[in-house]
């Protein structure tokens, strides 16, 4: 089976959907942000603070290239993974790229209780979400499969992904 690569904005549900897919398909999940934190021995927040976003993006690319060499796994990416074409190329080599979408208000609801997303630690996170979404839309739309997550459970979303994956076999 080809890898399933989950992309989408922060709070689009990649982590929970990856877990659900893993249960249904008996596949392993690799979370790119976790891999970055393990290899840097720092949290994402610390990496942003100490080295800045540009260095974070380099680390992200290194880790994406590495994890994309696996077969038969679910890869959960960070929300900015789609911004570099070389990331997309690496992820697509053995995988189908799935993008989860949600409205800005839903994203705010899903992200507001945690402080582990440096890009959203601003005075008006809703405005920031809207701006980033607007800028990133064309990048997210490069995915092979787009899935709207509004008003759906992680199980429903995972089942929809499995159904859509059939186009790729
Ligand atoms: C980011 C999303 C985060 C993390 C980092 C940057 C982004 O991952 O990679 O904070 O640029 O959208 P999640 O999408 O898992 O929150």
From the alpha-carbon coordinates, what is the Rg to the nearest angstrom?
Answer: 15 Å
Strand order of the largest sheet: 2-3-1-4-5
Strand proportion, as a percent range, falls in 5-15%
Strand segment tally = 5
- Indicate the mean pLDDT: 97
Structural class: alpha/beta
| Heterogens | shikimate-3-phosphate
The backbone outline, from C-alpha atoms, is globular
Total of helices: 7
Reported for the largest beta sheet, the result is:
5 strands, parallel
Low-confidence stretches: none
* Proportion of helical residues: 40-55%
Order of helices and strands: EHEHHEHEHHEH
Distance between the termini: 8 Å
Kindly describe this structure.
With 169 residues, this protein is an alpha/beta fold. 53% of the residues lie in helices and 15% in strands. The chain has helices spanning 14-25, 32-40, 44-67, 85-93, 104-111, 125-140, 154-165; strands at 3-8, 28-31, 73-76, 95-101, 145-148. Strands 2-3-1-4-5 form a five-stranded parallel beta sheet, with helices on both faces. Helix 1 (14-25) crosses helix 7 (154-165). The longest helix is centred in the first third of the chain and has 24 residues, at 44-67. The site of shikimate-3-phosphate (S3P) has 10 residues, from loops.
């Amino acid at each position: 089976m080809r890898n399933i690569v989950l992309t989408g904005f922060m709070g689009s549900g990649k982590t929970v959907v990856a877990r659900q897919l893993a249960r249904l398909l008996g596949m392993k999940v690799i979370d790119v942000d976790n891999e970055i934190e393990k290899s840097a021995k720092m949290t994402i927040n610390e990496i942003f603070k100490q080295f800045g976003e540009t260095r974070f993006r380099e680390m992200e690319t290194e880790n994406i290239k590495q994890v994309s060499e696996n077969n038969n796994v679910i890869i959960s990416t960070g929300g900015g993974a789609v911004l570099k074409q070389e990331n997309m190329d690496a992820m697509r080599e053995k995988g189908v790229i799935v993008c989860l979408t949600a409205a800005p208000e839903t994203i705010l609801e899903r992200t507001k209780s945690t402080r582990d997303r440096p890009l959203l630690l601003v005075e008006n996170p809703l405005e920031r979400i809207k701006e980033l979404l607007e800028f990133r839309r064309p990048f997210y739309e490069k995915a092979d499969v787009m899935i709207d997550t509004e008003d759906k459970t992680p199980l429903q979303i995972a089942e929809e992904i499995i159904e859509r994956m059939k186009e790729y076999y």
